[in-house]
Design a protein that fits this description.
The protein is α+β, with helices and mostly antiparallel strands. The protein contains 2 helices and 6 strands; from the N terminus they run βαββββαβ. Strand 2 and strand 3 form a beta hairpin.
Length: 86
């Protein structure tokens, strides 16, 4: 099975948490947890598997959409095409 491995860097970022939330999305609550909102990120509607910190893989058909989303956040991105065997 072919996968695209994506590695991004948050080094030197002052607002790393904000950028991480924009990548993966997060749950936001208000009024002491009474209301819960699902905030979307770049990967919210894309199937991915997180491998390590700042590393995940996706199907190759989503590559251009994810890379452009990460670069729009000002991140350094590297991509690798790999074969995954079960």
């Amino acid at each position: 099975m072919r996968k695209t491995l994506i590695v991004y860097s948050l080094s030197g970022e002052k607002k790393a948490l904000d950028k991480t939330r924009k990548i993966y999305g997060y749950k936001d609550s208000s009024n002491h947890g009474r209301y819960v909102y699902e905030r979307t990120g770049v990967l919210s509607d894309i199937p991915y598997e997180k491998i390590a910190r700042s590393v995940f893989w996706i199907e190759p058909k989503y590559k251009s959409r994810v890379v452009s989303g990460l670069k729009a956040l000002g991140l350094q991105v590297k991509t690798y095409e790999i074969d995954v065997r079960n």
